[in-house]
Amino acid sequence: MRSSRLVVLSLAAIAAVGLTPSASAAQSATQGFADSWYWGAYGGYTSLSTAFGTQSLRTNAPTIGAEWMITRQKFALNIFADQSYFTTSSTITSPTSGAPLAVNINDMRRVGFDLMLFTPEYRMFKPYVGLGYSFNFINSASLRTCAGCTPTASSQAAADSNQKAIVDARTMGKVFANVGVMYIYKRFAPFAQISVMPTQGASDWYINGTGFTTIWAVGLRYNFGTSIEKW
Question: Which domains does the chain have, with CATH numbers?
């Protein structure tokens, strides 16, 4: 009986010794995370919807981006820029006649920031949630010329007003929320995240169909060192 207890205690001691390096490795991998600055790059796709007549056109656009993240222990500030590549159609309201203007649009750029809150980590995984704001720019927009698409302007002044509305509708600032997770390994931090931006029924912007705009992304962040000057 005594020998059985000794065997059990010996096995427990061996197991504890075996687990200790794993725990310390996880701690050392994440302890350099706070008060650092990271550069990152990512790719994915943007799922957006535009209103065209009685339809809502759904587009899945490939997206690439770059970012800069400054970390604290539980928080981070992330500044980013990305571009989505697509061609689709949308409508806005004519400021002169009130009739819908059919417009061809291409690509979208986003520049913005978000504040990230890190939830309790599990080993080397760091989940997070974020809230941010982005400036969104449609790259190009042109009046769609097809039979029955757009009524002819009644005067040059009306045509000029329509053209101004087409240009103005290219830009819109939006709040968004995101959720993601990073895996910390030495200076590297691969990550995956999803961002959700409310755009349904936006009457003065081209991304105005049903549902939300979602941005799915996977990428890699790299720790370039401390963000706090040490004396």
Answer: 32-225 (2.40.160.20)
